[in-house]
Every structure is written in structure tokens, then in C-alpha cells.
Design brief:
single chain; 490 residues; mainly beta; Lipocalin; eight-stranded antiparallel barrel; eight-stranded antiparallel beta barrel; 29 strands
């Protein structure tokens, strides 16, 4: 009996100590309030910059749903532009990199700061600040990558400077000077684009046995010695371990397409809306050999502020947030309408009057599988006016039809209204052409996941016959639904 009492007393004492520990550390919160932590902690957030983001309620709501709070409040007058949160390399706590600028600074210089947990003081502190070359807040992106191959992630900042040049600044962790925890190993500014040339690394690197090969960087700029605007210079940089810098190792010339130069100057003038109007269409992927091996499409709709990515069994819709002209085309930032933390930066370059070259950067790697690569060349899938292909339909027109849905009014601004009795529905529409077929896509207002594509089987003066289809890797697939006939009214 005495032993049982002693055991009971010890059990009560241990349970009390455990309860005090849980309450003191706050571990109890994760069972009631905190959500399970994601395996991938890196987040990239682009804030709203007055006058720079397309003024739509949806885009504005998505932007402000993101968390721009840093672990240490910034000083008065400092405006947060972007925040990247990740687990520190020592695994003790999270660390942050934040891009910011001073609201009163007329030069609008952007800085990056490092926020880390100080074990001795048991709190977060700002440990380092440095200016960067990019100055346009709406184009700033932060991400980390093992460029050197030593498993220490470099901090990479990209964006546009005040001359509309693409800028890339790369910082590497340094332990030589406590006052300078990061050193700049590359700072490139170019009137074209900059690409990190990733290469495969050995199994020994993947298993943590040996170091990996460092990645090279390629910068594509205007060839001032050529009379062709599309001719480019490719400058390659490699990492030098001795100098701890990326150094130039090669320059080569890349001839561009021979296009009428006056038209090129108009498209690449940088005037607002010019290049946006040029890409306002459906584009399909073309391999380097000129073949259509992948059924991937991209649809740019500046008026609806949307970019749609079509591939096998998927249709991803992004809000077109910002665009900035570049030497060879346009730099676009966009945000997924369903997954607000998924953003893409798109660098578009003009190849010819019916083809463009794109490089698409995912701002955030998700645990879901997004296996498509959208980089490459694309050709225009539909002409500006489908009449050239023997159809009386154009991408947008004014017409009124009767049909099983009710009375549908097509307006030349790309909007439609379906009236049935006392009810009405609105949305946007577009006519385009794929594989010699005329297509109509209806995008109901407020129903982003219920977009409908119809093949136009016949388009006479008096009526239009439609069949529901889906775009996939095998082309246009019939949905086997009853056909729809729209009768022309006026």
C-alpha cells in the first residue's frame, strides 16, 4: 500500500512538471491554434505599389491577404516591399530576408535586410542591411538557391532598375567578418534578360558526400554593333572560388530573325500598352526543332487582366498584376487566382512577328506537383481577325443571339450577357483558332473554375452551331454533350 502511494505521488509530481513545461513554452498552442508547418518554408510576397498594380478588386484582395509582417518591426518611414521566410541553415529558428525602401527617399533606393534569431538575447534582430540595384518595387523577387554547389543557399534578388534593365544581385553567406555576414558575388544589370544555367549534379552531391558543380549565369543583351534590333550578345559568367565572384568567361553573338525594322521599333518602343496589345492572343508551344511536341497554350488577355496557362487536364488562371517593358519585350508578374501564394514572373522576348520566347519563373515551389515547364518558344495560334482563315467570326463583335441558354448579347469589348426571363448572367468571351478549328470560350463572371470552350461547327449568317470541347495534349476533345444552336437576332 505504501509503495502504491509513493508511485502515485511520483506520477502526480511528474505530470505537474510536464504541465508547467507545456504552459511555459507555449507548446499547447499548436494543438488548438497553430496549423501544421509546411515542409517548404520559403515564401515570396509582392506588395501593392500605388499605381503599379492593375486596379481590380480580386487582385487587390489577393495581395492584401498575404502576410508582409517581419519578425522585427522596421523603422519609421521604412516600407516593406517583399519578404522571404525560411528555416535558418543551422536549423535553430526561422530567418527572414526583407526588401524595403524609405518612403521619403526621392531616389527610391531599395535595400535588403537580414532578420535572424539571436540566441543570447532570445529575440529576433536585424543583423545586416545592403542596397540593391533594382528600384521598381512591383518587379522585386526574392529566392534562395545553391548556386555554388556547397549546399549553402545564396540569396538572389531580381527586378528592374530605373532604366528598365533587368537586374540580378546575388549574396553569399560569409563568416570572415561579423559585421558583413553576406558578400555580393554577382551584380548584373542588362538591357535584356538574365538566366541561371542549371546543370545536373552527381548522386554523391545529392547524398551529401561531395560538393556539386557551380551553376553558370547567362546574360542576353542588345548587340549595338548590329543593324538588326533582334541580334543579341550572350555573356556567360562562372563562379571563381578564389575571388568569390561571378566572372565573365565568354561572349558570343546570337543572330535574331530578320524582320522589318520599323515594325520592330514600334513594338519595342516601350510605349504603354503596345507590346501588351501585340501578345493579346492565344499562343502554342513550339520545340527548338520547330515541332509541336507539347500541347501547351498560353492566352494573354490584357483587357481582362488575365493570363491563362493551358496544358493536359489543367487550366491555370493568373491575374495579370504588373508589366514593365524591356529591350526585347515585356516583363510580367502575375498571381494564381486559386492559390494566392503561387506567383509567376514571365520574361517575354520577341522572336518574330508571329512568335515569342518566354521564360517563366515560379515564385514558390509547392508540395503539389507542377511539372510543366513553360519556358520556350510560342507561335500565335489565332490571327488578329479570323476572317483571314475563312471564318466570318472575329475575336469580339456586336451581335445578339437566341438559344437554349436564353438570349445572349456579345459586345465588342469582349463581354457577354445571357438573359433568361428576369435573370441575367454576365462574363467574358473570346473567339480564337486552334488546329484549323474556330473556338468560343465563355468565362462566366465570378465562376473562374467553370469556363466553357465550344467548337464552332458552323457559323452561318442566321445561326451558329456549337459543340462543347476540351483542349488537351491530344488536341481538341469532344465532351459528347448535346450541341447548342444560337440563332442570330441582330
Amino acid at each position: 500500500m505504501k509503495k502504491a502511494f509513493i508511485g502515485f505521488y511520483i506520477g502526480i509530481t511528474l505530470a505537474s512538471i510536464g504541465l508547467i513545461f507545456v504552459l511555459a513554452t507555449g507548446a499547447w498552442k499548436q494543438f488548438f491554434y497553430e496549423k501544421p508547418e509546411e515542409q517548404f518554408r520559403t515564401r515570396i510576397v509582392t506588395p501593392r505599389e500605388t499605381g503599379s498594380i492593375i486596379d481590380t478588386a480580386t487582385a487587390d484582395l489577393m495581395i492584401w491577404n498575404e502576410n508582409l509582417i517581419t519578425k522585427v518591426p522596421l523603422e519609421d518611414g521604412e516600407v516593406v516591399i517583399a519578404v522571404l521566410t525560411r528555416e535558418s541553415e543551422d536549423g535553430i529558428a526561422e530567418e527572414q530576408f526583407a526588401a524595403y525602401r524609405y518612403a521619403s527617399d526621392p531616389a527610391k533606393v531599395i535595400y535588403i535586410t537580414w532578420i535572424v534569431y539571436d540566441i543570447e538575447r532570445a529575440r529576433y534582430r536585424r543583423m545586416w542591411n545592403a542596397p540593391i540595384a533594382a528600384v521598381r518595387p512591383e518587379t522585386i523577387s526574392l529566392f534562395t538557391q545553391d548556386l555554388i554547389g556547397d549546399r549553402s543557399s545564396c540569396v538572389i534578388v531580381t527586378g528592374m532598375n530605373d532604366r528598365n534593365e533587368y537586374a540580378m544581385i546575388i549574396f553569399k553567406r560569409s563568416f570572415q567578418d561579423a559585421n558583413e555576414p553576406f558578400i555580393t558575388i554577382a551584380e548584373l544589370q542588362i538591357d535584356g534578360s538574365i538566366v541561371i544555367q542549371e546543370t545536373g549534379r552527381s548522386l554523391a552531391y545529392q547524398q551529401g558526400i561531395t560538393a556539386g558543380q557551380s551553376f553558370r549565369i547567362a546574360a542576353y543583351s542588345y548587340d549595338s554593333s548590329s543593324s538588326n534590333i533582334l541580334d543579341q550578345l550572350e555573356t556567360t559568367y562562372a563562379y571563381n572560388p578564389q575571388s568569390q565572384k561571378y566572372e565573365q568567361i565568354n561572349i558570343s553573338r546570337i543572330p535574331g530573325s530578320q524582320i522589318e525594322q520599323q515594325r520592330l521599333r514600334e513594338l519595342l518602343s516601350g510605349a504603354p500598352g503596345v507590346f501588351e496589345g501585340f501578345i493579346n492572343d492565344l499562343w502554342y508551344y513550339v520545340s527548338p526543332q520547330g515541332t509541336i511536341d507539347l500541347k501547351q497554350y498560353m492566352y494573354f488577355d490584357p483587357s481582362a487582366k488575365e493570363i491563362i496557362f493551358f496544358s493536359d487536364k489543367t487550366q491555370q488562371v493568373f491575374n495579370w498584376q504588373n508589366s514593365a517593358p524591356t529591350r526585347y519585350g515585356l516583363y510580367i508578374t502575375c498571381q494564381n487566382i486559386s492559390i494566392s501564394t503561387l506567383r509567376r514572373s514571365i520574361d517575354i522576348q520577341l522572336e518574330s512577328l508571329d512568335s515569342i520566347k518566354m521564360r517563366v519563373i515560379e515564385d514558390l515551389n509547392l508540395k503539389i506537383d507542377i511539372s510543366e515547364s513553360w519556358d520556350g518558344s510560342y507561335r500565335r495560334a489565332s490571327p488578329a481577325v479570323l476572317e483571314r482563315q475563312g471564318s466570318s467570326l472575329s475575336p469580339a463583335f456586336n451581335a445578339l443571339y437566341d438559344g437554349p441558354w436564353g438570349r445572349i448579347r456579345f459586345s465588342d469589348d469582349g463581354e457577354y450577357t445571357i438573359s433568361y426571363g428576369s435573370t441575367s448572367r454576365k462574363g467574358r468571351y473570346v473567339f480564337y483558332r486552334v488546329d484549323e478549328h474556330n473556338l468560343l470560350e465563355l468565362r462566366p463572371e465570378g465562376e473562374n473554375d467553370n469556363r466553357m470552350v465550344y467548337r464552332i461547327d458552323a457559323a452561318e449568317t442566321s445561326e451558329m452551331n456549337l459543340s462543347r470541347v476540351r483542349l488537351g495534349t491530344t488536341g481538341i476533345q469532344d465532351m459528347l454533350e448535346p450541341p447548342v444552336t444560337l440563332t442570330f437576332v441582330e
